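[step 3/7] inverse_fold.run input=structure_tokens len=362
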């Protein structure tokens, strides 16, 4: 390990200064436009959320901000300066990130992983590292001290000598954050930092991010966990199919009907999954029973009556799936009935997302 550094901390940024200014960022892959003309700013002292359904372009947008991708169009500025399209230069400029897929050096220790994150702050060159003179040792000691401070900060100091691969998943995510902080950024980008975490870990991650913000580091965070995002963020931007649909405070975003339709659905309101599924199961059982009864008494008017009743209660438009399921409407109470088949799938999908699906597809 040849890392060597001064222990300088993030340069304080005047409150309200624009730290990140992305304008008209577009990213095309062949015929697919993954990100389309997105503008986004992050100011000092802010935690900004970036949400959107799977495949909306969130990670691609991060990749454009951090030099992993060169945007097809648009410009990204950090503290007023246009960023060079090279990852290490972006990190050196002051933007650090974590990845949706955890990217640690599994066979290195926790401490070594953080030390790797300090390489952009290294002043000693190759010769110094090879000769290992007094300057090198002094700088290395300083670097280790800073890395230990960061491990203390994220709560992993006691595991400094453990191999990264032996950490539980939630701690690996925290270690990634420590490694990102080791480059002393002014802006931290977090791509699904709580994916795979349990509720306690998620709450701790929330506190950690507030603490990072309080140290003067602006944060832009992607997450599917709506509760987490809405608690944490000063502002939230919503990407849908590569485009920014809306941006605002959490109340504004949550109440926007387009967002609800495109993304939030119902999960943030409570826990729809099980209740809805039970209602559907009940309705299906009732439908089956009705169908069986019809078959048993087949000859006369009864089937017609049942169908007629169903038609009466089905308020004309609610019937796309009704052709062979009219019977649903005969027994169960109205409100749940008409909606029952649809929310099951929506709720299931969204519940996955709301719980931080852990989907990883960088
Ligand atoms: N390198 C690439 N080459 C081609 N297509 C890509 C590439 N990276 C991403 N895409 C496509 O761009 C779109 C946006 O993907 P992206 O990973 O940015 O979405 P996301 O919002 O991060 O989704 P998720 O919430 O699932 O992580 C997807 O259709 C994806 O398949
Ligand atoms: Mg992603």
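[step 3/7] decode complete -> sequence:
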């Amino acid at each position: 390990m040849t890392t060597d550094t001064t222990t300088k901390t993030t340069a304080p940024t005047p409150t309200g200064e624009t730290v990140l200014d992305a304008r008209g960022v577009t990213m095309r892959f062949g015929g697919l436009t993954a990100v389309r003309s997105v503008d986004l700013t992050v100011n000092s002292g802010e935690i900004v959320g970036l949400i959107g359904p799977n495949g909306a372009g969130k990670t691609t947008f991060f990749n454009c901000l951090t030099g992993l991708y060169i945007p097809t169009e648009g410009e990204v500025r950090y503290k007023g300066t246009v960023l060079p399209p090279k990852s290490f230069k972006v990190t050196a400029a002051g933007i650090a990130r974590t990845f949706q897929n955890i990217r640690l050096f599994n066979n290195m220790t926790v401490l070594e992983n953080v030390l790797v994150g300090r390489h952009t702050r290294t002043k000693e060159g190759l010769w110094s590292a090879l000769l290992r003179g007094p300057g090198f040792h002094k700088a290395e000691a300083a670097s280790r001290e800073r890395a230990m401070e960061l491990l203390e900060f994220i709560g992993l100091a006691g595991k400094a000598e453990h191999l990264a691969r032996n950490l539980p998943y939630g701690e690996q995510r925290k270690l990634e954050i420590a490694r990102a902080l080791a480059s002393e950024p002014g802006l931290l980008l977090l791509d699904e930092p709580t994916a795979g975490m349990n509720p306690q870990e998620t709450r701790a991650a929330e506190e950690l991010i507030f603490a990072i913000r309080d140290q003067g580091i602006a944060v832009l965070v992607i997450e599917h966990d709506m509760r987490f995002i809405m608690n944490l963020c000063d502002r939230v931007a919503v990407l849908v199919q590569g485009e920014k649909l809306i941006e605002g405070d959490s109340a504004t975003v949550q109440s926007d009907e387009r967002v609800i339709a495109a993304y939030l659905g119902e999960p943030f309101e409570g826990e729809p999954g099980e209740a809805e599924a039970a209602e559907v199961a009940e309705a299906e059982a009732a439908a089956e029973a009705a169908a069986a009864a019809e078959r048993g008494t087949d000859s006369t008017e009864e089937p017609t009556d049942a169908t007629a009743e169903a038609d009466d209660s089905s308020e004309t438009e609610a019937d796309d799936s009704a052709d062979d399921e009219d019977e649903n409407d005969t027994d169960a109470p109205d409100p749940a009935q008409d909606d029952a088949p649809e929310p099951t799938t929506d709720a299931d999908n969204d519940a996955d997302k709301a719980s931080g699906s852990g989907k990883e597809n960088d």
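[step 4/7] annotate
The beta strands are 18-29, 32-43, 47-51, 73-78, 81-82, 95-97, 187-191, 218-222, 235-240, 243-248.
Confidence is low (pLDDT under 50) at residues 1-11, 266-272, 298-362.
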